[in-house]
Amino acid sequence: MSELSEAASKTEQRAAALARRLALPDEARSAAAAAIAARALPFAVPQDAIVAGYAPIRGEIDPFPLMHALSARGARLALPVVTGQGRPLLFRAWSEAEALARSPLGILEPPQGAAEIVPDIVLVPLAAFDTLGHRIGYGAGYYDCTLAALRASRRIIAAGLAFAVQQIEVVPAAAHDVALDYVITERETLIFRSR
């Protein structure tokens, strides 16, 4: 597949998966987030592990119920901050009691004074995913760049969170696309780490 047709295919798959995601009723969204939070994770989350979530946008599955459950078991929480196009995200410490500020991109994030920390586990939003651990994001490459940078310096867990309706047959993965270790939906957990 040429780069041009690969990009067109990703664009079409992204649009279709996002449409399915946006069509979900609010009750199904809340139930899915609660189901993920209530289910055992396929990996250990040690006491004091740093878990980076995200503030959901554009109909993404809400990671906060899972983050709250992990925090109650001793995990420390963080949220991402965009620092510039083509640059890895940085992560700032956050607790449920702290207010979030709206960034210039309109995304909720910890205030500038919050400590920068490096996560052990990254909960990754996505538009679509396949059964090989590949994901389609929104096209800016923030998470690919971030996961590659983190993995270059330490062992981390990258777990995609999604609704089951976001699964597609095959993501046309490019060389710069970084695969996930897991994808967790309200129906199942897909494990790729052993590959």
UniProtKB/TrEMBL annotation:
Enzyme class: ligase
Keywords associated with the record: ATP-binding, Ligase, Magnesium, Metal-binding, Nucleotide-binding
GO molecular function, one term: ATP binding
EC number: 6.3.3.2
Keyword Transmembrane helix attached: no
UniProt: substrate binding residues: E60
Catalytic activity line of the entry: (6S)-5-formyl-5,6,7,8-tetrahydrofolate + ATP = (6R)-5,10-methenyltetrahydrofolate + ADP + phosphate
GO BP annotations, alphabetical order: folic acid-containing compound biosynthetic process; tetrahydrofolate interconversion
Cofactors named for this entry: Mg(2+)
Binding site for ATP: K10, T11, E12, Q13, R14, R135, I136, G137, Y138, G139, A140, G141, Y142, Y143
Entry's family note: Belongs to the 5-formyltetrahydrofolate cyclo-ligase family.
Protein name as annotated: 5-formyltetrahydrofolate cyclo-ligase
The organism's taxonomic lineage, starting at the top: Bacteria, Pseudomonadati, Pseudomonadota, Alphaproteobacteria, Hyphomicrobiales
